[in-house]
Amino acid sequence: MDATQAIKLASARAWRTYLGGKMLDEFYGVTQAKDSHFPEEWIMSVVSARNAGREAIQDEGLSMVAGAMPPVSLKSLITANPAGFLGREHVACFGESTGVLVKLIDAAERLTVQAHPDRPTAKALFHSDFGKTECWHILDGRPVNGQPPCIYLGFKPGVTREQWIALFECQNLHDMLDCLHRFEVHEGDTFLIEGGIPHAIGAGCFLVEIQEPTDYTIRVERTTPSGFQVADFMCHQGLGFERMFDCFTYGGFTREETQKRWKIPPALLREERGGHETELIGYQNTDYFRMTELKIDSSLQLDAEASFSGIYVLSGKGTICANGVRQAFQKGDQFFLPAQLKELAIQKASDQECRILRCYGPKPAVKQVIDHVQM
Question: Domain 10-262: which topology?
Answer without folding.
Answer: Jelly Rolls (2.60.120)
